[in-house]
Amino acid sequence: MDAHDAVEGWIARYEQAWASNDPDEVRALFTEDGEYRFHPWEAPTVGHDAIVEAWLDAQDEADDHTFSWSLLAADGPTAVVQGRTVYTDGDVYLNLWVIRFADDGRARSFTEWYMEPPAGPDA
To answer: Which of 5, 25, 83, 104 could form a disulfide with 95 if both were Cys (CB 3.0 to 4.6 A apart)?
Structure first.
């Protein structure tokens, strides 16, 4: 399986977990000792229980957003993904994800950057 296929499968599972907020689906994305950085400058949230708790604390509704993405780079177990999240309330976020995969296809490390594009006529 090539890198794009592996990332595509993982992101499909991520989107399903994002929509369902099912703890088992969230847990299945990460290794038991996985690290999730909601912001690159913060210490990671480590382990299944902590990741699920943090995820549920910040959960979105299943139908309040759309997400599109493209694979920017892949090198061995590391992938860089560019995404765009559009919420039904009009908020838009640009995303950059760095995902480091374990051999079994789960993320052992996930770091996200999300930014709001500038407002105005030139945006």
So the answer is: 83
